[in-house]
Amino acid sequence: MADLLWFETYRRSKRRKGKPTFFSRAELNSLLSMYSQRVASGDWKDYAIDHHSDAAVFSVFRHTHERPPLYSIAKQSGPGGNKSTEYLVFSGLQRLARAQNLGEALKVVEKKLHPVS
User: Fold this and answer.
1) Is the peptide bond before 68 cis (omega within 30 degrees of 0)?
2) Is 117 among the domain residues?
3) pTM for this structure?
4) Is residue 11 situated within a structural domain?
5) Whole-angstrom Cα distance, residue 39 to residue 33?
6) What does the pLDDT profile of the chain (117 residues) look like in tens digits?
7) Phi, psi of 28 (to 5 degrees)
């Protein structure tokens, strides 16, 4: 016979301590502004936003079905709900930057490579 499990009780037992990490409105505006400029230039086609208990991740893709993402910008909260927040930029599995504010982290992504003649 199956056991009855209340959904709310299950959710409370699985919930991690501390508040989840999200991008603020200003951070999302910065990320989406950069994204829209790169879409207009034809560099990027798609994006995804993921939320975890200790990080929020904004990923951009050159093609819709591309895996892994071209870039991932993560906002990571400090351990134990600490107020310290850091921003990490990844290209695949390689970490490109680590910064205390989003503007510094985005400088790595904003640089465009130009062919050398």
Assistant:
1) yes
2) no
3) 0.76
4) no
5) 10
6) 566 656 666 555 555 556 778 999 999 999 999 999 989 988 889 999 998 878 999 999 988 787 889 999 999 987 655 568 899 999 888 999 999 999 999 988 877 544 455
7) -65, -40
Is residue 30 a part of any domain in this protein? Answer: yes
CA dihedral 25, 29, 30, 35 (to 10 degrees): 140
Through-space distance between the first and last CA atoms of the chain, rounded to whole angstroms: 73
Query: What is the 3-state composition of the chain as percent helix, strand, coil, each rounded to the nearest 5?
Result: 30, 30, 40
Question: Is residue 12 situated within a structural domain?
Answer: no
Q: Which domain holds residue 71?
A: 17-110
Is the sign of the CA dihedral 81, 83, 84, 87 positive or negative? positive
If one counts every other C-beta atom within 10 angstroms of the C-beta of residue 75, the result is 22
Q: Which of 33, 27, 69, 63 is nearest to 48 (CA)?
A: 69
